[in-house]
Design goal:
The protein is mainly α. The protein folds into 2 domains: about 60 residues, no CATH class; about 170 residues, Multidrug efflux transporter AcrB transmembrane fold, CATH 1.20.1640.10. Helices cover about 60% and strands about 5% of the residues. It contains 8 helices and 4 strands; from the N terminus they run E-E-H-E-E-H-H-H-H-H-H-H. It has a two-stranded antiparallel sheet. Strands 3-4 form a two-stranded parallel sheet. Strand 1 and strand 2 form a beta hairpin. Helix 2 runs parallel beside helix 5. The C terminus is likely disordered.
């Protein structure tokens, strides 16, 4: 609208010129970046599986400059002299969580081993006691498959927490075996007696874990923790009652035989 209240065409005021708009230059940690954003849903909801598949395909790419596109997970490229790719977002968080919890789990195993060595004054007995810990995975992984659930960070927490419960069950068996050996000196009878007497406390412990974890089975966040605790406790308990006495017999029966021979 002009000063005399008449309409003026917009073409009389501006000059149209087609050009390319200037792009925004993004920076992260003082380095230039180009963001490529994507999401996954429906069939595969976790970005981990999608990223693992994409990493293989991206590794096959050959850039016009003639070098391979380097991929980073936890750290960013140090230099900007060539193109590289940094996986970020949920993948970065997942990578760091599993890495840190894996290191924490290794520290926990070392501390458990040291404590049991100090108590039994033996370097072999703790290995027998801790042997059922990896057996929990025989229950945890099929449990996730049956529920169609992904192995998440809470699943890893359940695996770590379950190791303490399984070690406690093994200690119940081994401690009773050593007490019976001190009484009658018969290893075979001591193992059979330990399995019969300690069966109920060990089974009740597993049942308590299952009942306590059942309330979380439908929770979208803590479902992995519940599945790991429930299925891991049930399977590992059954295998502990078999594996620990067998390992103990195989190790110490041979030692007794060699001692008697000498």
């Amino acid at each position: 609208m002009s000063s005399n209240n008449q309409l003026i065409s917009l073409s009389e005021l501006v000059k149209k010129q087609e050009t390319i708009e200037e792009k925004t230059i993004y920076h992260k940690n003082l380095k230039k970046v180009t963001y490529v954003i994507g999401d996954v849903a429906v069939v595969i909801e976790s970005p981990v599986y999608a990223v693992l598949n994409m990493q293989k395909e991206i590794a096959k790419l050959q850039l016009p400059e003639g070098y391979e596109l380097q991929q980073y997970s936890a750290i960013q490229p140090w230099l900007e002299d060539k193109y590289s790719m940094k996986w970020d977002g949920e993948w970065h968080i997942t990578y760091e969580v599993f890495r840190d919890m894996g290191m924490a789990f290794a520290v926990v195993l070392v501390l458990i081993y040291i404590l049991v060595v100090a108590w039994y004054r033996s370097f072999v007995t703790p290995l027998v006691i801790m042997a059922p810990i990896p057996l929990t995975l025989i229950g945890i992984l099929p449990g996730h498959y049956l529920f169609g659930a992904f192995f998440t960070a809470t699943s890893m927490i359940g695996f770590i927490a379950l190791s303490g419960i399984i070690v406690r069950n093994s200690i119940l068996l081994v401690d009773f075996v050593q007490l019976e050996l001190f009484k009658n000196g018969n290893l075979r009878e001591a193992l059979l007696e330990a399995g019969a007497v300690r069966f109920m406390p060990i089974v009740l412990t597993a049942a308590a874990v299952v009942v306590g974890s059942f309330v979380m089975i439908l929770d979208p966040i803590f479902q992995g923790l519940a599945i790991a605790m429930m299925f891991g406790a049930v399977v590992a308990t059954g295998l502990t009652l078999v594996a620990v006495p067998l390992l103990y017999f195989e190790i110490y029966a041979q030692r007794d035989t060699k001692t008697k021979a000498v």
